[in-house]
Amino acid sequence: MGRSSDLNSLKTCAVIGAGNVATHIAPALSRRLKVRQIYSRNLNNAQLLADNIGGAAAIDSLDSLQADLDLYLVSVSDDVIADIVEATSELTSGIWAHTSGSVSASIFAGKENYGVFYPLQTFSKAKVVDISKVPFFIEGNNPETSQLLFDLAESISDTVYYADSDRRKNLHIAAVFACNFANYMWKNADDLLRKEGLDVKVFRSLLQETLDKLEVMSPEDAQTGPARRGDVNIMNTHAAMLDTDKRELYQNLSNRIMKLYNE
Amino acid sequence: MGRSSDLNSLKTCAVIGAGNVATHIAPALSRRLKVRQIYSRNLNNAQLLADNIGGAAAIDSLDSLQADLDLYLVSVSDDVIADIVEATSELTSGIWAHTSGSVSASIFAGKENYGVFYPLQTFSKAKVVDISKVPFFIEGNNPETSQLLFDLAESISDTVYYADSDRRKNLHIAAVFACNFANYMWKNADDLLRKEGLDVKVFRSLLQETLDKLEVMSPEDAQTGPARRGDVNIMNTHAAMLDTDKRELYQNLSNRIMKLYNE
Predict the structure, then answer these.
(1) Which of A:26-85 have CB within 8 Å of B?
(2) Comparing C-alpha atoms, which of B166, B168, B160, B114 is closest to residue B140?
(3) Using the beta-carbon criterion (under 8 Å), do B169 and A241 form an inter-chain contact?
(4) Higher per-residue confidence, A124 vs A246
(5) How many CB atoms lie within 10 A of CB B151?
(6) CB A219 to CB B169 under 8 A?
(7) Contact A116, A108 (CB under 8 A)
(8) B177 touching A, CB under 8 A?
(9) In chain A, at which residue ranges do the beta strands (DSSP E only) sit?
C-alpha cells in the first residue's frame, strides 16, 4: 500500500479509557494530534491521565464526548467495548478504533470509518514502556482508514503491520505459546528450585541470555538441552527424579524436541 | 559455614580449557590470582585467551602443566573431563575443580582437594557477560576446599551457593524447564508467526516484559492468558485453528494451567 494518507487530517482525538493501554498510548498520540478528551467511568482516573496531556479534558460521561473529533480511540477491556459502541451510537463520524487483539473491528459496524489500533504488548501503569519498540497491528474498514491508522501508528512506533481479525487471532495464539506457556515452564522450574531453597530468579541471567539469543538466531537453531542432543541417559535420570505430573510434562516435551531434531 | 578460609592461599592457577566458559571465567579469576597457564589442545585457542591475561602461558600439552599451582580449573566439555583427570593423574596437589553442572565432583577422586566451580549461565565467546551477575554453585570434597572455592566465586560474582551433585542435578532439570522448554514454546510461536510472514522477533518487547515480571512476582502470580482465566471459548477457538500436533500441545498445557488456577 502506498503512502497516500495525509496524517494532517487527523488533528483531534478522544481517548476512551484510562487503563494500562490508554495510559501508555495517549501521551504518545498527544505528540502527534490534540487529545481533547479522556473518558473513564472513574473521573479521577481520567483526570490523572489528562493531567499528563496538555489541553485534554477528563470526562466520565460518554454523553460529553465531542461529536466533531477526527479519532475516537477505544482502549477499554474487551468485554466493555460493545457497551461503549452502544452508548455512542449517535456518533458516527470520525475514525473509531479499539486497541484489542481479540475483538473484531466490525464491532464498530454502525460507524462510517473504523478499525483496530492494537499494540502487541503487556502494559502496566507503573512501568515505563518505550512505545517506539512496541509493534502495532492495524486494521481499517476501508483503505483510507487503514492507511491513516497505519501512518498514525508509524508516527509513534518503529514497527507497524496490517492485520485483519484472523491474523490477530493467529498472533494471539502465538503469544499464548510464547508468553503464557513459556511462563508456565518458568513456573515448573520455580517449583523445582523452591525445593532447593531457591527460586526462578536465580535463573535471571540465564533466561535473559536465552531470550537474547533470539536476536541473532531462530528458536529452532537456539534450542539446546538433553532432548536436542538426544541424550537419553540424562533424560531418564531427570525423569526418575521428577514427580508423576512433572515427569509426564518433561517426557512429552522432550519427546517432541527429540522428534524434531533427531529424526 | 563461617568465613574461615584465607583466599590468599590461592595465589596461582592453571585454566584447563579455552572454550566459552574458560574464556569468560579466566579473565575474572586473573583479577584475583595469577593465571600462570592456559591449556587447550589447540594452541591458538590457548594463546588467544592467554593474550587477554597478563603473565599466562599458552600450552597444548598437559605434561607441561606446572605441578606446584594452587588451583587447576578444568573448563572443558563434560565428556572430556575424565580424559583430563587421567592425563594428569600424577598431579595430586592443589585444588582441582571443574565448571560443569552435570559431572560429579568425585571424578577427581584421585586428587587431594577437589570440587566444582559451576557458573549457571550459557556463555558464547562473542558475547560479553557480566560475570558478577552469574550465579555460581560450589562443591568441595572437604570443608576447607568448599570454603576456598566459595570465597573465590564470591570474589567475582554477587551470587554464590553451595550445591552438591544432587542439587546441581535438580538445578539442571529446572534449567531444562526454564530455558530449553521455554525456548521450545518460542519455537512453536515462531512456526505460527512465520505463517503470517512474521517471526518470533516481533514478540521481542512482549517477551522481555514477560521475563521482567519475574523480578517482581513469582511465575505463578505472573501467569496470564485464556487458560489462567479459564476462558474455554477462546481456548476452543484457538484449538480449532491449530494443526493436530500443536493442538495436542496447546490443549495439554492449557489443561494443566486450568487445573492449577481454576480448581
Answers:
(1) none
(2) B114
(3) yes
(4) A246
(5) 18
(6) no
(7) no
(8) yes
(9) 12-16, 34-39, 57-59, 71-74, 95-98, 113-119, 136-140, 160-162
Q: How far apart are CA B146 and CA B6, in angstroms?
A: 12
Gap from B13 CA to chain A (nearest CA, Å): 27
C-beta separation of B189 from B204 below 8 A: no
ipTM of the complex as predicted? 0.84
Put simply, the chain A residues between 191 and 250 with a CB less than 8 A from any chain B CB are 192-193, 195-196, 198-212, 214-215, 218-220, 222-228, 234, 237-238, 241-242, 249-250
pLDDT score, position A197: 93
Residues 6+ apart with CB under 8 A from A73: A13, A14, A15, A16, A17, A22, A25, A26, A29, A97, A98, A99, A117
Residue B78: pLDDT over 60: yes
The whole-number average pLDDT for the span A72-81 is: 94
Alpha-carbon span B228 to B222, nearest angstrom: 10
Map residue A161 onto helix, strand or coil. strand
Gap between the Cα atoms of B129 and B133, Å rounded: 8
**d(C-alpha A201, C-alpha A207), whole Å:** 9
Structure-block grid coordinates of residue B95: 585444588
3-state SS class at B256: helix
Predicted TM-score of the model (pTM): 0.84
3-state secondary structure at position B115 = strand
Mutate to test the interface with B, among A159, A205, A249 (most CBs of B within 10 A): A205
One-letter amino acid of A5: S
The answer to whether B123 touches A213, Cβ cutoff 8 Å, is no
Looking at the DSSP bridge assignments, the partners of residue A13 are A35, A71
**H/E segment holding residue B149:** helix B143-154
* Calpha distance A153→A136 (Å, rounded): 7
CA atoms within 13 A on the CB side of B115: 26
What is the nearest CA distance from A225 to chain B, expressed in angstroms? 6
Q: Please give the Cα distance from A208 to B128 (Å, whole number).
A: 13
